[in-house]
Here is the input.
Amino acid sequence: MSSLHRMTTEPASLERLGVLYQSDEYIVVDKHWDIRIDSKMWYEKLTVQAQLRHRFPQLADPATYYGFRFCHQLDFSTSGALCVALNKAAAGRAYRCFKDRTVSKAYLALVRGWVEEETQTLDFAIGKNSSEGKTHMMCIEGTEGCENPKPSQTELTVLEFGLYDGDPVTKVLLQPLTGRTHQLRVHCSAIGHPIVGDFTYSLGEDDSPYRMMLHAHLLHIPLESQPLLVSAGDPFLPTVDPKWLPRQATVEALLERRVEEERKKKKKEEERRENEEKTKGSREQRREEESEEQRRQCQEWLSEWVGD
Here is the structure.
């Protein structure tokens, strides 16, 4: 059973919980961006746990601290498919699939710049960042302060190019082959194409988008009884966010951008030539002045010589 809900740029609320799949043993929800799964902080009242308790109070398990068992994690800023087990036995079966690495996950993302390679495997070991002020971050092996890096691989596939709020971006499909903390964000940043709106890994610079553009699109858990395959749709569409313009919708914009780039290039070339001409002119003028001075000195010398 699944229920469709409208993609939105509105912030999370207790009532707004998208349910993608529901059975007697599992619920898969479409986690909202910028919301924690759970929290022990008294002031954080809006969490996915709270949404579940509000929507399904009868399904909460009093034997657990929170009420619901999450089969895996999604970052605070990431949206998309999140699986919840409704009893201990169901949780155990799902955990085994994750432990055995038989689960398949695919994410959609918008990343800064235009990614040149259509498909690539991002292979950077990831460790904890121990640098001052960055202990909440992860980092790739070889960077300063990177502790205990572990092998990490992500498959990246380019889906389409376009503009986000006028800047070049690429829509990509990301498939993590390992499950390190912040793996997709760190890997995209490592190849020079950070995820749009990733405040943390842009060191606070990319703060204008309304969210981080990373979405858990597909989740496949090969449970023995009944394999679970759920899609959480695509929030990165112009109908949801008009600031995102895919290539087919931006041919004119791209042409305008290229014309503008050519115009700037031409102007730069003209300025370079102008400067060269000026430099050449002043050199020739100096040469003429020097030649005139040399003739005068030569004439004086000849006159003196003849006079002698």
About this structure: The chain has four helices and 14 strands.
